[in-house]
């Protein structure tokens, strides 16, 4: 199992490096990060621009810049940011954990909703429950994530004002935490962060669960029609036990693949959700970096996102071994 | 599918008067099956209607994208979708947004499908090193969040509609290529491909005449779903500010413009959003109907 994981990582690392090279070439050969400096009024002295260009390695040819960046990466240095006061290393990591807790929680919530609704739909095929689940699945599948997020945000604002007291707050609709807490104990900080997470997590999870629920339904239906389930029933096992112990375990395998493959997509969905709820996360960092043409910040963003996708897919591969007794990674 | 199921003249039943079953072509069977799927047919009709309204309605409607003296009007007979702060008629904007979004989504499906089919069938047919190299290339695209890469690439250009379509379609083709590769891998081992090889058919001929037509079912279904993917990706990109740029507009840009005033001018937010949902929903239903129609396991006979 360990050898298998190591082999998978050895394949993924070159892929990530080639991706980093291609993205780097594309970003650095187009766009001018010093554009903002050049158009100021009064004009910025040319010496300042030259110094800034030197600080951002703009005076080097692109291949030299890439090897310079890569050398820095090995030492843990992600390069200078266009924003002088910012350290890419600190910035990207702190934002990464803000986003990761949103993505992981939304994924867990979406998985639970998908498994429950998929299994119920399959067991009660063509019932009212099945039809309403199917309808909801199609609806959320067709809904743009930003539209749903805005809708939830506005619903939160509406519910906050429903008692007429504009100070009372049930839902937090802006930011990933409060700027100021009157009594910053550990528990208060935790509830504050958790409170801010409710609506964004729900928005991301609802969008994500839709297609998974369809998958879970069809894989459960397929398993329920198979011979070994009939055998389990025939030998007198209780239906509930057949469902949970025999059917569900096998029916989870396709969902494992799909959810891992969708991870990059959820990360993309988080970018949009965070933008709407005004989080200081990876989403805002991405749009800011693109707008300021901050090449090194963008590289750090994409590399981190790519790495986490690789890791999640690796975990999914290892999970097959747990779920499917026929697959063993020795 | 066409190659295997077409009845060749040698096995054709002799014409017997009175009792006879006319053979059906594969296309006929698929069309008949699709037409039985009421929801899919209804969706197709609705989608065609939306497209006609988007293009025909914009030509007939009395307002264009220029502002009117009516500022922040709720929906009325004069302005069915209301107007925004600067006084733009929102129906005219939504129609224009529909045109741009539909145009981009259809192009995404076309580009993604053509590129992905070529990519996947070459990888699946040649196998070995070619397959390895092409699939690692697909991994390269799939490993990164699509919207981040698309936003980065789109920011390098000027935000014309066709450039956005090329970017989203190009990224989507990586997923299509994986699907088509899988289909081609299983087809490649079948006897009729070997027969074609034995007859001396070239690789190009085998791919274009035998593999691609036989993978047509999954290809058409994936192309349909790609339209929905395309419209959601484009609107998301435009919402973030990296898609279609003002003064032109798209459904995503309209939602973004309306996002600040959902409570005070809700009509600005709901109309473009409802059209996005309607288009994506109908396309998903059509895709579902097509999937059932192409599925050889589907019969009306009880098992």
TrEMBL record, chain A:
Coiled coil: none annotated. GO terms for cellular component: plasma membrane. The chain crosses the membrane at residues 9-27, 102-123, 135-152, 193-212, 251-279, 299-323. It is found in: Cell membrane. The keyword Transport applies. It holds the Pfam family BPD_transp_1. The keyword Membrane applies. Its main location: membrane. CDD domains: TM_PBP2. Belongs to the binding-protein-dependent transport system permease family. This is Peptide ABC transporter permease. It comes from Rhizocola hellebori. The lineage of its organism: Bacteria, Bacillati, Actinomycetota, Actinomycetes, Micromonosporales.
Automatic annotation (TrEMBL), chain B:
One of its GO terms (biological process) is peptide transport. Belongs to the binding-protein-dependent transport system permease family. OppBC subfamily. It is a multi-pass membrane protein. It comes from Rhizocola hellebori. InterPro entries: BP-dependent_transpt_permease (IPR050366), MetI-like (IPR000515), MetI-like_sf (IPR035906), OppC_N (IPR025966). GO terms for cellular component: plasma membrane. It holds the Pfam family BPD_transp_1. Residues 98-287 form the ABC transmembrane type-1 domain. The chain crosses the membrane at residues 39-61, 104-126, 133-154, 160-180, 215-233, 267-287. The keyword Repeat does not apply. PROSITE patterns: ABC_TM1 (PS50928). This is Oligopeptide transport system permease protein OppC. Its main location: membrane. It is found in: Cell inner membrane; Cell membrane. Keywords: Cell inner membrane, Cell membrane, Membrane, Peptide transport, Protein transport, Transmembrane, Transmembrane helix, Transport.
């Amino acid at each position: 199992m360990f050898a298998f994981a190591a082999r998978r990582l050895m394949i993924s690392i070159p892929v990530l490096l080639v991706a980093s090279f291609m993205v780097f070439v594309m970003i650095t050969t187009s766009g001018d990060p010093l554009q903002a400096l050049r158009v100021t009024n009064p004009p910025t002295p040319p010496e300042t621009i030259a110094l800034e260009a030197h600080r951002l390695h703009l005076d080097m040819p692109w291949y030299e810049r890439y090897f310079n960046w890569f050398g820095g990466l090995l030492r843990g240095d992600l390069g200078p940011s266009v924003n002088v006061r910012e350290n890419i290393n600190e910035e990207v990591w702190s934002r990464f954990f803000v986003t990761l807790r949103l993505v992981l929680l939304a994924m867990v919530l979406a998985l639970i909703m998908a498994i429950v609704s998929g299994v119920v739909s399959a067991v009660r095929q063509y019932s009212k429950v099945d039809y309403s689940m199917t309808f909801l699945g199609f609806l959320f599948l067709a809904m743009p994530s930003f539209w749903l997020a805005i809708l939830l945000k506005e619903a939160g604002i509406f519910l906050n004002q429903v008692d007429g007291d504009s100070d009372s707050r049930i839902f937090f609709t802006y930011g990933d935490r409060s700027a100021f807490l009157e009594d910053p104990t550990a528990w208060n900080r935790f509830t504050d962060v958790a409170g801010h997470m409710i609506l964004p997590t729900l928005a991301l999870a609802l969008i994500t669960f839709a297609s998974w629920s369809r998958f879970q339904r069809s894989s459960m239906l397929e398993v329920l029609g198979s011979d070994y389930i009939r055998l389990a029933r025939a030998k007198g096992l209780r239906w509930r036990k057949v469902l949970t112990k025999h059917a569900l375990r096998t029916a989870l395998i396709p969902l494992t693949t799909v959810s891992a493959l969708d991870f990059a997509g959820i990360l993309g969905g988080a970018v949009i959700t965070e933008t709407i709820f005004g989080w200081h996360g990876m989403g805002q960092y991405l749009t800011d970096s693109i707008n300021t043409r901050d090449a090194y910040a963008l590289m750090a963003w994409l590399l981190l996102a790519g790495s986490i996708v690789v890791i999640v897919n690796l975990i999914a591969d290892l999970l097959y071994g747990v779920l499917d007794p026929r697959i063993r990674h020795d | 599918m066409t190659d295997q199921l077409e009845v060749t003249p040698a096995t054709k039943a002799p014409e017997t008067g009175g009792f006879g079953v006319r053979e059906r072509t594969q296309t006929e069977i698929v069309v008949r099956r699709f037409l039985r799927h009421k929801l899919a047919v209804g969706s197709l009709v609705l989608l065609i209607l939306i497209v006609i309204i988007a293009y025909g309605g914009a030509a007939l409607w009395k307002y264009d994208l220029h502002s009117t003296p009516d500022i922040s009007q709720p929906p009325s007979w004069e302005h069915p979708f209301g107007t925004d702060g600067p006084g733009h008629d929102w129906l005219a904007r939504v129609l224009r947004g529909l045109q741009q979004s539909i145009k981009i989504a259809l192009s995404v499906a076309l580009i993604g499908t053509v590129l992905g089919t070529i990519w996947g069938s070459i990888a699946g047919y040649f196998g070995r090193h070619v397959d390895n190299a092409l699939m690692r290339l697909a991994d390269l695209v799939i490993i990164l969040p699509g919207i981040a890469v698309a936003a980065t690439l789109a920011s390098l250009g000027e935000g014309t509609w066709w450039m956005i379509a090329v970017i989203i379609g190009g990224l989507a083709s990586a997923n299509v290529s994986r699907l088509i590769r899988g289909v081609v891998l299983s087809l490649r081992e079948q006897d009729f491909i070997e027969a074609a090889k034995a007859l001396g058919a070239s690789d190009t001929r085998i791919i274009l005449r035998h593999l691609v037509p036989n993978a047509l079912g999954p290809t058409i279904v994936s192309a349909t779903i790609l339209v929905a993917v395309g419209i959601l990706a484009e609107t998301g990109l435009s919402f973030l500010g990296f898609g279609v740029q003002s003064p032109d507009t798209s459904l995503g840009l309209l939602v973004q413009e309306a996002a600040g005033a959902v409570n005070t001018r809700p009509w600005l937010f709901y109309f473009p959003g409802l059209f996005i949902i309607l288009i994506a929903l109908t396309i998903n239903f059509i895709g579902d109907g097509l999937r059932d129609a192409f599925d050889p396991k589907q019969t009306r006979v009880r098992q």
